[in-house]
Design brief:
- Chain A: Belongs to the ABC transporter superfamily.
- Chain A: Keywords: Amino-acid transport, ATP-binding, Nucleotide-binding, Transport.
- The complex is a heterodimer of chains A (233) and B (300).
- Chain A is α/β, with parallel strands linked by helices and 233 residues long.
- Chain A has a single domain, classed as Rossmann fold.
- Chain A has 9 helices and 10 strands.
- In chain A, the strands form 2 sheets. A 6-stranded mixed beta sheet of chain A has the order 6-7-8-3-9-10, with helices on both faces. A 4-stranded antiparallel beta sheet of chain A has the order 2-1-4-5, with helices on one face.
- The longest helix of chain A has 16 residues.
- The mean pLDDT of chain A is 93.
- By secondary structure, chain B is mostly helical.
- In chain B, 72% of the residues lie in helices and 3% in strands.
- Chain B contains 11 helices and 2 strands.
- A two-stranded antiparallel sheet of chain B has the order 1-2.
- In chain B, helix 1 packs parallel to helix 5, helix 2 packs across helix 3 and helix 9 crosses helix 10.
- The longest helix of chain B has 31 residues.
- The radius of gyration of chain B is 20 Å and the shape is globular.
- The chains are: A alpha/beta (233), B mainly alpha (300).
- Chains A and B meet through helix 2, helix 3 and helix 6 of A and helix 6 and helix 7 of B.
């Protein structure tokens, strides 16, 4: 479904991604592991369009994304949860979630927030009319996932969704990610620096180093030592 | 006591007029970080549109209907200036996003062009707009004289603020505009067409300037440079209020309007201006982000 082929991308002169190839399918959780600064976030940004491609191309549903602006990519069915959550602080939780329907274009008009969102994240229901900026880090993370989910994307890009969050919420988010993939048949790209968390959640693992993939394979067939070699600082 | 009340009313009246100008600026500056010096000329265009509607009524419409021209000219001024705003956005402003200094110069040039065009069409001397008869006269409450014209402007501004508030808070388009103001890349990542939002906002802001121009014809004669008198004050209000916040802009307009009328009463217009500017400078030292600023819970 998502096919990243030989891309070169980065900021100004320095290319962070170097000949990177990567794939993700519907209903599959793909973990992307790597140390800090190897280009994991840049990969997600280049898929949604926040970082321009220099070479190579990204295909989503057989459509080339290289020339498409950010908003058009989102409307094709790519949901993005950035590392800083980036919820809108002065809008209410409800307004934040409703903005998720924008990716459905005209079909998203007057949509109601689906019930499963509040089943997964009960705290969002309690906080529905509070400002997004009043939420704690963990709550903001849940809100960001809910916002990206309601527009019914085909793929969800999650940038370290479990970073800096208390253990009970980490578990909750792991469960929801699994449900999103299994029950809703949505592809999930999970960028993570924690090996254990990635191995627990993902079906397929990529390990990144120096801007490209160095190890890849199904989670249960991978050799842990192979991965750890690239994660040790 | 009467003097105090009269000044209070004058201050409110002046504030409301400034507010109408500042609202448009606040939207465009908050959303696009573009300093639109040509906004003052939207006021001028709005005023000339009112003048033109009046001329058309005089020559083509039975005299008994003349008094209605003003009601009609408000939506016409809004639409005309909104369309001009849209054209300006599509042809110039969109190349200047997030470049306040360049946009300042470019829109200043644009402003001069607009003024020259107005001079070519309507001539350099000021023209006067005859207020409709139902706006002549005043009401006296507790021996304070309230002219209908100023009351009308007050009501008009209240309607504009309420309308804008409704648009921004209750409608999907308004929510989209808020999202882009707060975080442009994230808004785009959610599928919002930010270009379209920008163009709409600019047209809306210009249209509000046009309505302000309509109101201006009730206060005095109209000339090609009439807008430039107000643009600086309007910018001050936007900055004092806190960028991109309607509530802040309303408070800022009240502050500046009241402060300048009250100082002007005891002294002169020049001293009032100095006092207002000094007040703003000192205030911004204390609160650099203005009266209303967005506070966010910092992530742990």
């Amino acid at each position: 479904m998502l096919n990243v082929k030989g891309i070169l991308a980065g900021y100004d002169g320095s290319m962070v991604l170097n000949d990177l190839t990567f794939q993700a399918q519907k209903g599959q959780i793909v973990g992307v592991l790597g140390r800090n600064g190897v280009g994991k976030s840049t990969l997600l940004k280049s898929i949604i369009g926040l970082v321009p491609l220099k070479e190579g191309d990204i295909h989503f549903h057989e459509q080339g994304l290289k020339k498409l602006p950010i908003d058009k990519r989102a409307r094709l069915g790519i949901g993005y949860v950035p590392q800083g959550r980036e919820i809108f602080p002065s809008l209410t939780v409800e307004e934040n979630i409703l903005l998720g329907f924008e990716m459905m274009g005209k079909a998203g008009k007057n949509k109601k927030i689906p019930n499963e969102v509040f089943e997964w994240f009960p705290v969002l229901k309690e906080m529905l009319h509070r400002k997004g900026g009043d939420l704690s880090g963990g709550q903001q993370q849940q809100l960001a996932i809910a916002r990206a989910y309601v527009g019914q994307p085909d793929i969800l890009l999650l940038d370290e969704p479990m970073e800096g969050i208390q253990p009970s919420i980490v578990q909750l988010i792991q469960q929801v990610i699994t449900k999103i993939a299994r029950e809703k048949n949505i592809g999930v790209v999970l960028v993570e620096h924690d090996l254990d968390l990635a191995m627990e959640t993902a079906d397929f693992i990529y390990v990144m180093d120096h801007g490209h993939m160095v190890v890849e394979g199904e989670t249960n067939k991978l050799n842990i030592q192979d991965i750890e070699r690239h994660l040790v600082v | 006591m009467e003097i105090l009340l009269t000044q209070l009313f004058n201050g409110l009246s002046y504030s409301s007029f400034l507010l109408l100008i500042a609202l448009g600026l606040s939207i465009t500056f908050g959303l696009m970080r573009v300093m639109n010096m040509a906004h003052g000329d939207m006021i001028m265009i709005g005023a000339y549109v009112t003048y033109s509607v009046q001329l058309i009524f005089v020559s083509m419409v039975p005299e008994s209907l003349f008094d209605y021209y003003f009601i009609l000219s408000i939506p016409i001024a809004f639409i005309v200036t909104a369309l001009i705003g849209l054209l300006v956005e599509k042809s110039l402003i969109r190349f200047l996003y997030a470049r306040p200094l360049d946009s300042l110069l470019a829109t200043w040039g644009l402003s001069l062009i607009f003024q020259q065009i107005a001079r070519m069409i309507f001539g350099a001397p000021n023209v006067a707009v005859t207020a409709p008869s139902w706006l002549n006269g005043n009401v006296e409450i507790a021996s304070v004289v309230l002219p209908y014209k100023r009351l009308f402007i007050l009501v008009l501004v209240c309607l504009c603020v309420l309308g804008l508030y409704y648009y921004l808070v209750k409608t999907t388009a308004g929510r989209r505009m808020n999202a882009v103001t707060l975080n442009r890349p994230m808004a785009a990542s959610l599928g919002i067409n930010t270009r379209k939002v920008d163009a709409t906002a600019f047209a809306l802001g210009s249209g509000l300037g046009g309505v302000a121009g309509c109101a201006l014809t009730l206060l005095g004669p109209v000339g090609p440079t009439v807008g430039t008198n107000y643009i600086i004050d309007a910018f001050m209000i936007v900055i004092l209020g806190g960028v991109g916040k309607i509530k802040g802009t309303v408070l800022g307009a009240l502050c500046i309007g009241l402060l300048s009328t009250f100082t002007e009463y005891g002294t002169s217009a020049t001293i009032a201006k100095v006092v207002v500017f000094a007040f703003i400078i000192i205030f911004l030292q204390w609160k650099p982000s203005g009266l209303i600023s967005t506070r966010t819970r910092v992530l742990d």
